[in-house]
Predict the structure of DNA ligase.
Amino acid sequence: MTTPVAQIVDAAAYAQAVEDVVAAAAAYYTDGTSPLDDDAYDQLVRGIAVWEDAHPDQVLPHSPTGKVAGGAVEGDVPHTVAMLSLDNVFSPEQFTAWTASLTRRIGREAARFSVEAKLDGLAVAARYTQGRLTRLITRGDGIAGEDVSHAIGTLEGLPEKLDQPVTVEVRGEVLMTTAQFEHANEVRTAHGGQPFANPRGASAGTLRAKERAYTVPMTFFGYGLLPLPDTDTELAERLDGLAHSELMALAARLGVHTAAATAVPTVTATTVDEVLERVREIAALRAELPFGIDGIVIKADLAADQRAAGSGSRAPRWAIAYKLPAVEKITRLVAVEWNVGRTGIIAPRGVLEPVQIEGATITYATLHNPADITRRDLRLGDHVMVHRAGDVIPRIEAPVAHLRTGDEQPIVFPEMCPRCGSAIDTSQERWRCEQGRNCHLVASLSYAAGRDQLDIEGLGATRVIQLVEAGLVADLADLFALTREQLLTLERMGETSTDNLLAALATARTQPLSRVLCALGVRGTGRSMSRRIARHFATMDNIRVADAEALQQVEGIGPEKAPSIVTEIAELTELIDRLAAAGVNMTEPGATPPAAAIDDPAAPADTPDDRPLAGMAVVVTGAMTGPLESLSRNQMNELIELAGGKSSSSVSKKTSLVVAGEGAGSKRDKAETLGIRLAAPDEFALLVADYLP
């Protein structure tokens, strides 16, 4: 793996790079802003180091290499023990080389390593005197930091009083979770401020703010525990002898959040392969985490190994940060496109100057809705922070307001539907064409006829357009009123094609309720949610009389989604009546009507579910064979849920079973790592034989 490095061609470019890095570091460590994103900063620092290695006689005195925080900040509160940064590696080969150098330093292989997520926030030291939090200090230049004690009492996970009256210093990271970041931007913009560009910068700026008219929550996670000069001698000696993992266990007992208590708990490993496997596991979980990480920290766990390895002027030699590819980059918002979905939702999409994130070229990012654009104060020409992790759709976090030049322009919202020219319903955050589905009739009908909905063979988009333009079809119900005579009048519709289409429509009438509901395209529902609703209520009549409270009994439907589903089902009354009159099935095979849920919420629960997959979360990966070979992935999901399970697309600790077919890759590997039960397609087919189509 090649580590990206900024190319510096001469002394002038080197001097400029030094100035750029020092300025970026100063901005970040002062108020959380920076003209560079993390990846650009790291590449520039590596480029500086390469130049200096080749030209040692030209190193500038204010170069950031070898200095904590790039040498850009100073502090006024001395640290009792230097608060250093970490050196970085970017590949298994670089990590293996680092462990070899560690072995040479301590004269043998390290006994074991601790492995934990590298939380993306601001490092601070919290000093406790007799168990009471008395001072908060930033890392600063590693020798001294800034006093931010005004933030005492505002950080979740950092108690003002420990569970024991000890005098110690806890070091850790202050960050904003994803939820805290969204809340912080809502509060900040409500008070007239610009939104934060990302959670890390938001944490740095918020921690230092002393006189704001509002406060926003942040979270502390400890990663170090050490004695102070006035710590009890016996305790100080004990702390000096404890392994890192033992120190973190003690910090947790004292009442402090630690990195070990995150969604990616700290583990210990004894070999390089074990460490690298844990690195892969954490990297795979990154997109699902409720907070940002930018790597994994690996430390020699034993105190004796740490002392033998020692420390440099910038970083300890017994710890390293294994950096992951950046998931956030700064680029420019050049345009906004307004697209109309099949239900009439008008969705904005940001057009970006192309930027590489995790190996993919990103040119578009979601903008959610007009209210979100207004909340974030986005403008055309803005530098924006774009986030993408794993397969997650890229999103624009916020404008990088301090990079504005004054040439940025407001984003113009459409005054009429960009597809059909009708009026727009702006009563909700998500705008909608007043024509609803009729605005996008061809797309709506093609979707309804799709394989995962009514599966009407022979009714592709071209045929749908032909039917619409001929005036034969104006909505879904009209499809089931088509006659042989009408179809024979169409171009390229002979007797065989006509009879085949009518037969496919007859088959579509018998599809289960879950597919009919999915074909209707109710906002807030998709294939999986339609199955859950249909299996919960069993009949369309039950769905139509269910109120928002009853709908919330369905897994995945909360108090925000339920009312909109109720409203839309009511809006579809006439269409549903016509579908039923045309003979379209309105029941879900095998489902039992929830009389208790609808008529008497206090009634006792049904008898235990004895279906083979009851209570199990099941993931399907690879190509299915044998009895399952002809099933699409959606049909596999239907089979899982019919047999009592819950289908899922990702493997996690909550997964009960992974059905691994031919070519199963990373999901199978992850299941093996987590000790999750694996089943071949034939084995799974036997398990659910009674439910196979």
